[in-house]
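Re: that backbone. Tokens:
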């Protein structure tokens, strides 16, 4: 760009409109004033020309060019040495591009950089590289330990948070680090700040009250547990941090002014929260949520471990077990935290997840959804909206509670890791794993871009199409689509629909709200029920041998094929347990039917798929039970050719018997080009017999249409055999001709008579 053009942009409003419009700027008048501000900042004319050229090159690719230019002008104006900064931009154009990208992505990050322009040098040096948890803690606690005054501690905690947040955001926005790297770094940062606040608070209280001791004279220990996204090492940019404060034993302090341990640790918890949340000119590091502690907002802020254990083991509710899936010691005595959580594992992951527990999980989900609808932003809320983050978290936590007692590997607070472990254990299909993994990352990226914008705890996408388009561009849609907004909206709709389908499939639809179904489902889910429970549940049904009936029922919950998942098999068997037992009870010999059902499903393989089908298509369950109860012949067909399970479905979907034309067309197509007809005819006959037979069993046909259909099947097979043999013999011997009489010299005709 010639210098004359730069002068024209800066001085001529009409020319500026044309130039700046091509840069993607929506307010050319305001943009011209911001360019003039840059030119007046103390830069030499040649540096002004360099900067204008760079802005012309990089602004059009920004998600919000107006916002980027506005923040860039403010940044240059705050520079202590504008000439030095201008020289940097001239020497390294990538620095300009990086700044503009940040300035277009987040007003909060822009404000942090503008308040301290020299921090950009540190950012460029660190390149947003991840830093280890212990390194962060060591650096901050060393700084805090050297500070005497509370005001200095408050500033240190906040400066550290701001500096490290810039580093993490640089890695996220500029280096495009993976979601798990970003969330882990945000979690490590919170760990460090909480640890820094804890040590500062403990030092202050200890100087006045002494050290809290146990009755044995040992120093009492204290730990801060993180729950929610902090506990799962998946914190976002502007999340509350969910904390629980625990100490190991009662006792009293050893200082001149005595406090009980309960009083000391209560004050310690209050002091930690105050250090973390008190607003200053640098803001507050975190919002703290203590509602997940025992008794919630009405309970003490700090609780002894024995008291907490007693609470959870006697009064803890399902939603609290769900919350503690993500619990992790984040500050203080980490070993104490691990000991506490180890003791709590049997409570979190109980022997089995009862039907009442499942109902409680579903009720909690409904309340969250109702609240989202009342707030009026259900479709735009990436967290609580239809198919949003919470839907994925709920289905994963449900599966963890359902399977965690027997599968320790699924006990993880991190959602993405839990998805992978559940899939590896067979609790999720590979397709479900891929969908949930990709869509969770997609939604969390949206959440990050929303929150980092103004450092607000928001999950709601903008309603204004122009602002929504900017969000799409910040997510990278401008690079691969000519219509970023439409592409983003299509992706969001498709992904959230898939998420919701999986939630419904595995939870809501599999376990409909019906209290009467609880005992049967519980019996299947309980790996070791007492004899009385077996008697109570199966005693309602007319089995002669309850013990054998229970063994046969539980055999339905086990996959014989090694690579198939028994966990998923039991999941969906529990979902159909009541309906299945009721159908079996309606047959003439329930014991025999259940045994036959086990043997047939074993021979078919893939029981989980079968029970899954039955849970969402009850007529197929009824059909399968009747098949096992009334027709060994049809069962034999099915077990000898498992692929014919599709024929069962066809018999229900088509809702009619096969007619002669359909049979002829189908068999002709199957036999076309085949050398050996026998296996084709055998398979065709069996499939059609199965189709006719199941309709007969279900009482969908009278006797006359049934026998006519069986006759048509036989005649169709016979026709195909005759046609094939006729062609073979003619090819070898020629066509048979009439030798005498009125038809002498004409081709002979063949007729086959059916008797009986």
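Recovered sequence:
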């Amino acid at each position: 760009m010639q210098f004359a053009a730069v002068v024209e942009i800066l001085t001529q409003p009409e020319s500026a409109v044309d130039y700046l419009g091509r840069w993607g700027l929506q307010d050319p008048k305001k943009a011209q004033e911001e360019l003039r501000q840059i030119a007046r900042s103390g830069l030499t004319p040649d540096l002004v020309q360099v900067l204008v050229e760079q802005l012309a090159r990089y602004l059009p690719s920004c998600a919000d060019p107006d916002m980027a230019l506005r923040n860039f002008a403010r940044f240059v104006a705050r520079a202590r040495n504008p000439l030095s900064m201008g020289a940097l931009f001239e020497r390294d154009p990538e620095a300009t591009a990086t700044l503009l990208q940040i300035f277009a992505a987040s007003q909060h990050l822009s404000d942090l950089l503008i308040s301290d322009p020299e921090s950009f040098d540190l950012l460029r040096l660190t390149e947003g590289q991840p830093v280890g948890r212990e390194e962060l803690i060591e650096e901050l606690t060393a700084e805090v330990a050297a500070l005497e005054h509370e005001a200095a501690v408050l500033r240190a905690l906040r400066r550290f948070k701001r500096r490290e947040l810039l580093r993490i955001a640089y890695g996220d926005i500029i280096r495009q680090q993976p979601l798990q790297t970003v969330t882990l770094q945000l979690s490590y940062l919170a760990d460090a700040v909480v640890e820094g606040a804890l040590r500062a608070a403990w030092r202050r209280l200890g100087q006045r009250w002494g050290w809290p001791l146990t009755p044995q004279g040992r120093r009492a220990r204290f730990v801060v547990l993180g729950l929610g996204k902090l506990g799962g090492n998946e914190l976002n940019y502007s999340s509350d941090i969910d904390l629980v404060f625990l100490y190991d034993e009662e006792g009293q302090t050893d200082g001149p002014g005595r406090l009980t341990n309960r009083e000391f640790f209560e004050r310690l918890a209050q002091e930690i929260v105050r250090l973390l949340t008190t607003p200053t000119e640098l803001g507050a590091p975190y919002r703290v949520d203590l509602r997940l502690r025992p008794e919630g907002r009405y309970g003490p802020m700090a609780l002894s471990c024995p008291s907490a254990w007693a609470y959870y083991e006697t009064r803890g509710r399902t939603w609290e077990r769900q919350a503690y899936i993500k619990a992790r010691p984040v500050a203080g005595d980490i070993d104490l935290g691990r000991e506490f959580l180890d003791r709590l594992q049997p409570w979190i992951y109980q022997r089995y997840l009862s039907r009442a527990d499942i109902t409680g999980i579903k009720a909690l989900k409904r309340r969250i959804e109702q609240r989202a609808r009342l707030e009026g932003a259900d479709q735009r809320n990436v967290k609580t909206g239809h198919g949003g983050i919470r839907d994925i978290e709920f289905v994963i936590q449900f599966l963890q509670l359902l399977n965690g007692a027997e599968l320790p590997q699924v006990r993880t607070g991190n959602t993405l890791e839990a998805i992978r472990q559940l899939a590896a254990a067979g609790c999720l299909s590979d397709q479900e794993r891929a969908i949930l993994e990709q869509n969770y990352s997609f939604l969390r990226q949206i959440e990050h871009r929303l929150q980092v914008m103004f450092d607000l705890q928001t999950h709601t996408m903008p309603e204004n199409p122009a602002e929504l388009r900017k969000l799409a561009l910040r997510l990278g849609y401008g690079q691969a689509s000519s219509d970023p907004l439409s592409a983003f909206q299509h992706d969001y709709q498709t992904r959230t629909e898939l998420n919701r389908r999986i939630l419904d499939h595995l939870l809501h639809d599999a376990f409909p709200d019906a209290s009467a179904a609880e005992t049967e489902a519980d019996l299947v889910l309980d790996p070791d029920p007492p004899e009385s429970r077996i008697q109570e549940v199966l005693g309602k049904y007319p089995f002669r041998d309850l013990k054998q009936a229970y063994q046969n029922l539980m055999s339905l919950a086990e996959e014989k094929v090694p690579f198939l998942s028994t966990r998923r098999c039991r999941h969906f068997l529990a979902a159909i347990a009541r309906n299945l037992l009721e159908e079996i009870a309606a047959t003439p010999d329930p014991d025999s039917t259940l045994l036959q059902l086990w043997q047939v499903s074993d021979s078919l393989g893939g029981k989980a798929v079968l029970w899954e089908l039955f849970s969402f298509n009850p007529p197929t369950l009824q059909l399968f039970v009747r098949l096992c109860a009334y027709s060994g012949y049809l069962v034999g067909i099915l077990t000898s050719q498992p692929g014919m399970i599709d024929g069962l479905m066809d018999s229900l979907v088509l809702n009619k018997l096969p007619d002669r034309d359909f049979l002829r067309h189908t068999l002709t197509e199957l036999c076309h080009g085949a050398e050996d007809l026998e296996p084709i005819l055998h398979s065709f006959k069996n499939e059609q017999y199965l189709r006719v037979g199941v309709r007969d069993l279900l009482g969908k046909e009278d006797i006359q249409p049934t026998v006519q259909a069986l006759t048509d099947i036989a005649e169709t097979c016979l026709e195909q055999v005759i046609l094939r043999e006729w062609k073979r013999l003619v090819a070898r011997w020629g066509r048979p001709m009439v030798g005498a009489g009125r038809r002498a010299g004409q081709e002979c005709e063949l007729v086959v008579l059916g008797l009986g």
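The two ends are 100 Å apart (CA to CA). The beta strands are 212-213, 222-227, 241-247, 252-253, 288-289, 302-304, 328-332.
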